[in-house]
Design a protein that fits this description.
The strands form three sheets. Strands 9, 10, 11, 12, 13, 14, 15, 16 and 17 form a nine-stranded antiparallel sheet that branches. Strands 1-6-3-4 form a four-stranded antiparallel sheet, with no helix packed on it. The chain has a four-stranded antiparallel sheet with strand order 5-2-7-8, with no helix packed on it. It is mainly beta. It has strands at 3-6, 15-24, 30-38, 43-50, 54-59, 72-78, 86-93, 96-101, 105-112, 116-117, 124-132, 138-146, 152-159, 163-168, 182-202, 207-212, 214-221.
Length: 222
């Protein structure tokens, strides 16, 4: 099956709009089923027909009765054959334009090289999104690796199956480290493959980014 996911969904939270772009390079039309899997476990489904050798868009904000105000992961499946397609999710977050591709693979280890918490809260926002594509609960370990001799700290969670979860990265900065500017990287280790995404917005420079991590470890299809 041709399918994939991204743990980024923002309508009603930080985002004013999301439009999923789909490119179908095949000589056959593609029917793509989208499942929006929310943090509370509910799912919203809709489909998009993409003509052969063409591009189409799914405007999430225009979907009828679409739930808003909670994080979700976007999962897609091609319904009519093994047709390779390409997808991207541009989203307007904090007044800036973020964009990230989908992943057709989940991994047991993800790395993120960019993280910063200033001494004064409110100027930088960072969140981590984890999507567990399996039906079973899995153990996840999030480790923050500090710069400047501040060491590291790990946090362990049990993540429900077929669910997305959002974390405020700055909640992982504890103790005396909260009294000084802290630079760091993150690793996310899971007992079974997951998909991990991180976003960063900095009001000092009035900009940000959102990205899947660097995938490492064992992998499997989403």
């Amino acid at each position: 099956d041709v399918r994939g996911a991204i743990p980024e969904g923002q309508i009603g939270l930080n985002s004013e709009g999301e439009v999923i772009g789909v490119l179908n390079p095949n000589n056959q039309d593609a029917e793509v089923l989208f499942s929006f899997i929310f943090q509370n476990g509910t799912t919203y489904r809709t489909s998009l027909d993409v003509q052969s050798r063409s591009r189409a868009e799914l405007d999430v904000g225009e979907l009828r009765n679409f739930p808003v105000g909670q994080p979700y992961s976007v999962f897609y499946e091609v319904q009519n054959g093994d047709l390779p397609i390409s997808l991207v999710l541009p989203t307007k977050v904090f007044g800036d334009e973020f964009a990230s591709s989908f992943s057709d693979q989940a991994f047991t280890l993800w790395g993120f090289g960019e993280g910063f918490r200033p001494r004064r809260e409110g100027n930088v926002t960072e969140y981590l999104r984890l999507f567990n594509p399996s039906d079973a609960d899995i153990a996840v370990e999030i480790t923050i690796h500090f710069d400047g001799g501040l060491g590291s700290e790990s946090f362990r969670e049990i993540r429900p199956g077929r669910r997305v979860q959002e974390f405020d990265v700055h909640d992982f900065v504890t103790g005396a480290r909260r009294d000084q500017p802290a630079f760091y990287g993150l690793t996310v280790k899971a007992a079974d493959p997951i998909v991990a995404y991180m976003a960063h917005f900095d009001s000092f420079f009035s900009g940000g980014f959102g990205t899947l991590g660097t995938p490492l470890g064992a992998s499997q299809n989403v």
